[in-house]
Amino acid sequence: MKNRTLIAGTIALSLLATVSLPAADQMTTLAARSGGKMRIEGTSNIHDWQVESSIIGGLMEVGPNFPMEPGQTVTPGKVEAKAEVFVQVRSLKSIEKDGKPYSDAMDGIMYEKLRATEDPATKKIPCPRIEYRLSELVLKEAPKTKDGAYVFDSKGELAIAGVTNKITMVVNVLPLGEKKLKVTGTTTLKMTDFKIEPPSPKIALGLIKTGDPVKLIFEWMLGPKKFPAATAK
């Protein structure tokens, strides 16, 4: 009787393993590609300002119900997806509206506020990166044309200057073919929600007062992750 129970249990475990393994194999890993950018826009009593980085890193893992090719039919609702995205703070640079470099002094103030300057005691940078972790993605709207973008509602966690907050935002996913994607989105944040005091540097004619709300805009380019070839023994 014991042997029969043991055999039955072994068969059940084998069946479970057989069912669960393909689900993991169906996940596709995508890696950040060049061509992306993140931009932060804000206001002050002197003029509007903007900073930008042309480097967005990270990985995204998606399931079979995620749109990977133009015109792919996808049922509205939650899709299998998770992602970790990061931007090195010191890759952010202040720019004019036409894209020309603006001010090294402003860059220095920004790095200090974002805790991306070296701590004299430890000789380390406390918060070198802005990081985002995607926790949920729900297809809201399929494209009306084959070359259109899929519109998703997203939930995730954004970490800036050592403070992590949950955020929601609309994300657009545009399949480019060959499992390449362009992911775009915009969200409005408040500096004080991340315990960042809006900068107010002194200038010759008075004090610059920076507005608390900022707009974060991003374009994230993704493609199939290239795994290293196995080394022959």
How would you summarize the topology of this molecule?
Blueprint: H1 2-25, E1 28-32, E2 37-42, E3 49-53, E4 57-62, E5 77-78, E6 81-88, E7 93-95, H2 104-113, E8 129-141, E9 150-160, E10 163-177, E11 180-190, E12 202-203, E13 206-207, E14 213-224
Antiparallel strand pairs: 1-4, 1-14, 2-3, 2-14, 3-7, 4-6, 5-8, 6-8, 8-9, 9-10, 10-11, 11-14, 12-13
Relevant terms:
elongated, eight-stranded antiparallel β-barrel, mainly beta, 233 residues, 14 strands, 2 helices, two-stranded antiparallel ribbon, Lipocalin
What does this entry show, briefly?
The protein is mainly β and about 230 residues long. The chain is about 15% helix and about 45% strand. The protein has helices spanning about 1-25, 105-115, and strands at about 30, 35-40, 50-55, 55-60, 75-80, 80-90, 95, 130-140, 150-160, 165-175, 180-190, 200-205, 205, 215-225.
